[in-house]
Amino acid sequence: MASTPRVGAPVGDFTLPGGVLRGEDPGLFERGDYSTADHRGRPLVLAFYPGDNTPVCTKQLCSYSSGLEAFAECGADVWGISPQSVDSHEEFARRHGLRMPLLADEDRAVARAFGVAAPGIGLRRSVFLVAPDGTLHWKHVALLGATFQSLDKLTEKLAAFSER
Questions:
Q1: Cα Rg for the chain, rounded, in angstroms?
Q2: Distance between CA 155 and CA 151 in Å, rounded?
Q3: Can you spell out the DSSP letters for 31-61?
Q4: Three-class SS state of 10
Q5: Is 62 a catalytic residue?
Q6: Which of 2, 55, 82, 160 is most buried, with most CB under 10 Å away?
Q7: Using 50, 70 and 90 to split pLDDT, how confident is the model at 4?
Q8: Domain limits of the chain?
Q9: Which candidate in 16, 21, 45, 57 is catalytic?
Q10: Which residues lie closer than 8 Å to 155 by C-beta, 6 or more apart?
């Protein structure tokens, strides 16, 4: 397994297919490609999670989705990344009203590049905070993945950008 990027190092560019729920219920699931290269200039939260509709992942993504305003106050966007298909992500987003982009890393190439691909579970639950200049600002990679980093913890780390 590759090692995770080190804090301060540039985060490699990648593009993944995904989608985001927009509008009112039942909402439009807007599909498209998401590229880190197109995202420079704003902080980015990359939340890798093992699977759609699993208990801890659902709790994590619902927490982040309901806290999107707090992320926006920090100037940050949040992308959820897992190995399931965009179709699976659409169903997951609709079922739980998730309002952040969910990206499909079906071949786990991005998870491998970030050093979070794991045999058996697909990938380790992890969060990477990418600075506006594309460097890694902070990371957390779970050993077991039974818990996740809270909205408060992430916005605390993101506050460093607004203090600059």
A1: 14
A2: 6
A3: EEEEESGGGTTS-EEEEE-S-TT-HHHHHHH
A4: strand
A5: no
A6: 82
A7: confident
A8: 15-162
A9: 57
A10: 67, 70, 71, 73, 74
Within 13 Å and on the Cβ side, how many CA atoms surround 3?
A: 4
Query: Does residue 1 have a pLDDT over 60?
Result: no
Which residue has 């990344």 as its token pair?
81
At the second CATH level, the architecture of 15-162 is 3-Layer(aba) Sandwich (3.40)
Kind of pairing, strands 122-123 and 44-48? Answer: unpaired
Share of residues in the chain with pLDDT > 70 (%): 94
Tens of pLDDT, residues 60-107? 999 999 999 999 999 999 999 999 999 999 999 999 999 999 999 999
Nearest CA to 46 out of 109, 118, 140 is that of 140
Residue for token pair 């990938």: 123
pTM over 0.70: yes
